[in-house]
From TrEMBL:
PROSITE patterns: GRAS
Family of the protein in this entry: Belongs to the GRAS family.
Motif (LXXLL motif): 276-280
Annotated stretches, region: SAW: 375-458
Alphabetical keyword list: Transcription, Transcription regulation
Protein name: DELLA protein
Length: 497
């Protein structure tokens, strides 16, 4: 891509990348040191004020930033002291540190910067010290998270990165197949699949017959049915033969294989975006639910198993370690999200109350995660994010082999992310978004810190042979031109995004 293009993704030189490497969790730090970090190259905003006025504004802003930075350092120290005291059982010291933190927080803006993230961790520690104080906190998110995920999708490129990277792996695995089946272990509102359907509609030789099985919560009401209706309508508008089926379950580890409707002769892909970490809590028999799901995946022999998870380390038993990791991870999340919101405001894209609602509900989703990471212990904790290196070990033990992402996939992810952020971000701050490629995995990063990691997997041939099973041929033999659903009219792409 030429230097004069308004939006471009450029690899960093190894020296610059190495300077950022300390902010990346292992093993992404090693990747950065070898110069495989790709950053968005955006034009800087033009100056519109006089030099003298600009200098005064810069000086005033610098003083304010220095004051907030000093308060932020003190705030972080107090929060960590409080968390450590809770871990040691010293609730008096924990409460005293938290009281001082609240005092500092009162003098900081809570709409941006350290104040915005600190208030959630202050509330989490208060709830941890005295669960009764939860009554004074804002109400928790509603039981059905679909609306929160919808706003989170619009609040930043996080889910767009996850979906586009997984879809690229699925398209590659389905190359040349006429009948294909995708099992989505957490379909939510179906944002991932219009782009896949669109790609199939443009495939040389015509689209395959596509089936999508969407897994959702039993209590999801009519959400799954509505997702299926909209996907059928969109596929019909592009003449892609399509069938959608719902699977409603209370827990992923309780899904029997027959319920997914896998049919011999179809190429199968299984997709999991931000689902597997919730299965890491162990039951009374010390058997993690994740083992049951991975056994199901290997038994179904998919051509590809796509996995996207938070690149974070929040599954440590010690509270202080978990708290520290979460504080810096979510600080990067909120900072990156603020850049998106700022870009919308500069572009005039948040007319009316849309920006306020999107920001508030996207933040509510992250707040719920923070409260769970800090306050939950044992089986009560759901958000058990782990870094890619541990997921790689776990999936390999389950009999899965990694399908490596390379430079081509990294460039594809960077190009897709550039498109996703084109109307999302503006100004120099947005240059912090990047793609990191390391050992066959891709990660979305903000200023060098990996936030989400994507990998692709298949069943290891040696493992399957050792289990005494023959590898099934899932290649199609002819395309069925029938279409699932009878919706008429052209599908509305905007309704999905």
């Amino acid at each position: 891509m030429s230097d004069n293009t308004p939006f471009g993704w450029l690899p960093m030189d190894p020296a610059t990348a190495a300077a950022l490497a300390g902010n990346l969790p292992h093993p992404f730090s090693a990747a950065a040191a070898h110069g495989v970090v790709y950053y968005l190259n955006l034009p800087q905003p033009l100056a519109t004020v006089s030099t003298a006025t600009a200098a005064a504004v810069v000086a005033r802003q610098q003083r304010q930033n220095e004051e907030e930075d000093a308060a932020g350092v003190r705030m972080v120290h107090l929060l960590l002291t409080s968390a450590g005291a809770i871990q040691a059982g010293d609730h008096s010291t924990a409460q005293d540190s938290l009281t001082q933190a609240r005092s500092i927080l009162a003098g900081l803006p809570t709409s941006t910067g350290i104040g915005r993230i600190a208030r959630h961790f202050v509330d989490a520690l208060a709830q941890r010290i005295s669960p009764a104080s939860a009554a004074a906190l804002p109400p928790p998110p509603p039981p059905v998270l679909a609306d929160l995920h919808n706003h989170f999708y619009n609040a930043g490129p996080y889910l767009k990165f996850a979906f586009s990277t997984a879809n690229k792996a699925i398209l590659d695995a389905f190359r040349g197949c006429d009948r294909v089946h995708v099992v989505d272990l957490g379909i939510m509102q179906g944002h991932q699949w219009p782009s896949l359907i669109h790609a199939f509609s443009r495939r040389h030789g015509g689209p395959p017959h596509l089936r999508i099985t969407g897994v959702g919560a039993t209590a999801s009401g009519d959400v799954l049915a509505e997702v299926g209706r909209r996907l059928r309508q969109f596929a019909s508008s592009l003449d892609v033969p399509f069938t959608f089926r719902e699977v409603r379950v209370d827990a992923l580890d309780g899904i029997p294989g027959w319920m997914l409707g896998v049919v011999p002769g179809e190429a199968l892909a299984i997709n999991s975006v931000l689902q597997l970490h919730r299965l890491l809590a162990e039951d009374a028999d010390d058997t993690a639910a994740i083992d049951a799901v991975l056994r199901l995946v290997t038994s179904l022999q998919p051509r590809v198993f796509t996995v996207v998870e938070q690149e974070a380390d929040h599954n440590r038993p010690a509270l202080l370690e978990r708290f520290t990791n979460a504080l810096f991870h979510y600080a990067s999340m909120f900072d990156s999200m603020e850049a998106v919101m700022m870009g919308h405001r500069l572009r005039g894209g948040l007319a009316g109350g849309f920006g306020v609602v999107t920001r508030a509900l996207a933040e509510a989703l992250l707040r719920a995660e923070i409260l769970d990471v800090v306050c939950g212990e044992g089986s009560a904790r759901v958000e058990r994010h782990e870094p890619m290196v541990r997921w790689r070990e776990r999936l390999a033990r389950a009999g899965l082999a990694q399908v490596l992402f390379g430079p081509d996939e990294a460039r594809h992810a960077a190009a897709q992310l550039a498109l996703a952020t084109r109307m999302m971000v503006a100004g120099g701050r947005s240059a912090g978004y990047g793609i990191v490629e390391c050992d066959g995995a891709l990660a979305l990063a903000w200023h060098g810190r990996a936030l989400y990691a994507a990998t692709a997997w298949r069943v290891a041939t040696r493992w399957w042979a050792a289990a005494g099973n023959a590898v099934r041929d899932e290649g199609g033999s002819g395309r069925n031109g029938s279409s699932g659903g009878s919706s008429n009219g052209r599908g509305d792409w905007a309704s999905f995004v």
